């Protein structure tokens, strides 16, 4: 049935309705077939790119598994603390509300005990060497 000749390439896109004009750029001379898909969205969810959405889910699940702090999670994953915090507190509720509620509980716990951690870190710092930051000995017993 084919005469061996091929025409211009045909591209098939399944896109949300708002994205169709962006898909048309740069396809000069090619036939274009696209299906406009009506995607139900909730709030700002449609503005979250796929890789950011996946990162939010990964960070949220990792936080629940490990129970670590934002700082430790950032160090483990290689993302900045700002990115991890924003993903967990602002973006995750738009992506997965149930996961966001569980993550919020862990973050609230860490916030509630941070003054204790700071005190313990200071105590360890003073006990670690013969002299603290002021040059005075911490061990006066």
Average pLDDT level: 74
The class by helix and strand makeup works out as mainly alpha
Q: Which series of helices and strands comes N to C?
A: EHEHHHH
Task: Specify the overall morphology.
Answer: elongated
Q: Whole-number radius of gyration? A: 26 Å
Low-pLDDT stretches are 10-24, 26-41
Report the sheet-strand fraction. Answer: 5-15%
Strand order of the largest sheet: 1-2
Distance between the termini: 98 Å
Please summarize the sheet with the most strands. 2 strands, parallel
Count the helices. How many?
A: 5
List how many beta strands DSSP finds: 2
The helicity comes to 40-55%
Count of individual domains: 2
Organism: Edaphobacillus lindanitolerans
Region (Disordered): 119-141
InterPro entries: Spore_III_D
Pfam families: SpoIIID
List descriptors.
55% helix; Sporulation transcriptional regulator SpoIIID; mainly alpha; two-stranded parallel sheet; 10% strand; 5 helices; 141 residues; single chain; 2 domains; Spore_III_D
What can you see in these coordinates?
- Residues 119-141 are annotated as: Disordered.
- This protein has 141 residues and is mostly helical.
- It has 2 domains: 9-39, no CATH class; 49-126, no CATH class.
- It contains 5 helices and 2 strands, in the order βαβαααα.
- The protein has helices at residues 20-24, 50-66, 70-77, 81-95, 97-128, and strands spanning 10-16, 31-37.
- Helix 1 (20-24) links the parallel strand 1 (10-16) and strand 2 (31-37).
- Helix 3 (70-77) crosses helix 4 (81-95).
- The longest helix is centred in the last third of the chain and has 32 residues, at 97-128.
């Amino acid at each position: 049935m084919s005469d061996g000749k091929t025409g211009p390439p045909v591209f098939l896109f399944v896109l949300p309705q708002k994205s169709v004009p962006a898909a048309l750029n740069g396809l000069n001379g090619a036939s274009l077939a696209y299906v406009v898909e009506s995607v139900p969205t909730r709030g700002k969810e449609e503005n979250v790119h796929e890789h950011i959405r996946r990162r939010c889910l990964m960070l949220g699940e990792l936080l629940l598994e490990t129970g670590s702090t934002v700082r430790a999670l950032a160090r483990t994953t290689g993302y900045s603390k700002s990115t991890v915090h924003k993903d967990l507190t602002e973006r995750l509720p738009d992506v997965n509300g149930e996961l966001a509620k569980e993550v919020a509980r862990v973050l609230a716990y860490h916030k509630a005990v941070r003054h204790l951690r700071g005190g313990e870190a200071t105590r360890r710092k003073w006990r670690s060497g013969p002299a603290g930051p002021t040059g005075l000995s911490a061990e006066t017993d």
